[in-house]
């Protein structure tokens, strides 16, 4: 019969499949923990250096020297502040678009990209958690069917003839549950970690937007401001001198 011909392949295949799913589950846990830890350390180093900068230009230099989710968000924001997000051919249209709205949209888009990177592999864990019990149940059903076929062929009806094959077939269901439960727990744990990271990115994006808003969504260098002050002082002196020279005499 078909069940007898495939029994040597189906049940071991189910068991090995569940073992492989379990290995992938724990490997994904280690990989995601390493990813989250690296991103967290990079964000801490970046924030510490970024908020110690004197102005937006110094902050942009800090961004260029760091990597991580928050640095990528700030890099996308500085592209809007400096006007690099618009192609040179569209410079005329750029003046018709509010820079604050562009900055807000770009920050949200970059956060969404970073969130998709943090979500990588979570769908696999969710699939393992939902399908592993059914894979194990399939192995159990096949094993019981094989046991019943064997009992029908031999005619043995004793407890030993039934309990042994059925108990062996239930191993697949137990293994499926053993794979599904950790997969679901790991999935929930990683989803919470991911949401916490997204909340931190949202907080940083709001602070970055407020900082750019205070500067009028324009990047000014400290040296440029000093030159403006010096130029303004020279103009005032020249104006005073010109007024003194042209003053009428009595």
Our Rg estimate from Cα atoms comes to: 33 Å
Mean pLDDT: 78
In total, how many beta strands? 0
Structural class: mainly alpha
Low-confidence stretches: 221-250
When the domains are counted, the total is 1
Beta-strand portion reads under 5%
For the sheet with most strands, the description reads: none
- Name the helicity range: over 70%
Transmembrane segments: 6-31, 122-145, 165-191
Domain MotA/TolQ/ExbB proton channel: 95-202
Organism: Salinisphaera japonica YTM-1
Protein name: Biopolymer transporter ExbB
Molecular structure report:
This protein is mostly helical and 250 residues long. The protein has one domain (2-244). The protein has helices spanning 2-50, 56-64, 69-81, 91-94, 99-119, 122-154, 159-214, 222-245. Helix 3 runs parallel beside helix 7 (159-214) and helix 5 (99-119) packs antiparallel against helix 7. Residues 95-202 form the MotA/TolQ/ExbB proton channel domain. It is a multi-pass membrane protein.
What's the helix and strand layout?
Elements: H1 2-50, H2 56-64, H3 69-81, H4 91-94, H5 99-119, H6 122-154, H7 159-214, H8 222-245
Helix pairs in contact: 1-6, 1-7, 3-5, 3-7, 5-7, 6-7
